[in-house]
Design brief:
Chain A has 113 residues and is an all-beta fold. Chain A has no helices and eleven strands. In chain A, the strands form two sheets. In chain A, strands 2, 4, 5, 6, 9, 10 and 11 form a seven-stranded mixed sheet that branches. A four-stranded antiparallel sheet of chain A has the order 1-3-8-7, with no helix packed on it. Classes of the chains: A mainly beta (113), B mainly beta (113). The interface between A and B is medium-sized, with 27 and 25 residues.
Chain lengths: 113, 113
């Protein structure tokens, strides 16, 4: 059974640019959540998508957005990048059971210069 | 979701049991205790969860006190590969729940040869 796939694994951008990250959950998992991890703030919830609809949103500015496709793959976009957006971005899928057992990918490490 | 308190770091000798404590004195009756770990540069990995009773799986055991105000994650025979940051999380499960987890700072477990 393939795990959660995130692409790209590493990327470097400059301030003001925008970036799109992709996440493919485990087959059959319809929920995808996104998290940002930085040394200062730790792991913080960004948003969750289920059946192409955003179900919950964390406390991040509108520059952070996401979407989910009919095959459950999800993308997140960050526009007008700032230095502070440098982070590891993790996505996690969840199966049908409404538990807190999430399956995380390896993450996309974004560096903003 | 209830707040958790964990020691920032712990050491354990390889082959010995690692006992990681977590305080959650404000836990509600319907909140579960979850444990995740994050090995360096990887996504978090689900370990175990429980409500009232002690739980055991192939990775670890979870001991929850009778008043549910604290719990202990036990790795029975720690190996060097168990070196990681361990997160204790409490949350409500259920049909209205989402893929949102609130991570604290966790406990950095260092397993030493």
């Amino acid at each position: 059974k393939a795990g959660v796939t995130q692409t790209p694994r590493y990327l470097i951008k400059t301030r003001g640019q925008q970036v799109t990250l992709s996440c493919s959950p485990i087959s059959g998992h319809r929920s995808v959540s996104w998290y940002q991890q930085t040394p200062g703030q730790g792991l913080q919830f960004l948003f969750e998508y289920f059946s192409e609809t955003q179900r919950n949103k964390g406390n991040f500015p509108g520059r952070f957005s996401g979407r989910q496709f009919s095959n459950s793959r999800s993308e997140m976009n960050v526009s007008t990048l700032e230095l502070g957006d440098s982070a590891l971005y993790l996505c996690a899928g969840r199966g049908e059971a409404n538990t807190g057992e999430l399956f995380f990918g390896e993450g996309s490490r974004l560096t903003v210069l | 979701d209830a707040k958790t308190t964990q020691p920032p770091s712990m050491d354990c000798a390889e082959g010995r049991a690692a006992n990681l404590p977590c305080n959650h004195s404000t836990i509600s009756g319907n909140e579960y205790v979850y444990w995740y770990r994050q090995i360096h540069s990887q996504g978090p990995q689900y370990i175990i969860h429980g409500l009232k009773n002690n739980e055991t799986n192939e990775m670890a055991s979870l001991i929850i006190t009778e008043d549910r105000k604290s719990s202990t994650l036990i790795l029975p025979h720690a190996t060097l590969r168990d070196t990681a940051v361990y997160y204790c999380i409490v949350r409500v499960d259920g049909s209205s729940n989402t893929g949102k987890l609130i991570f604290g700072q966790g406990t950095t477990l260092q397993v030493k040869p």
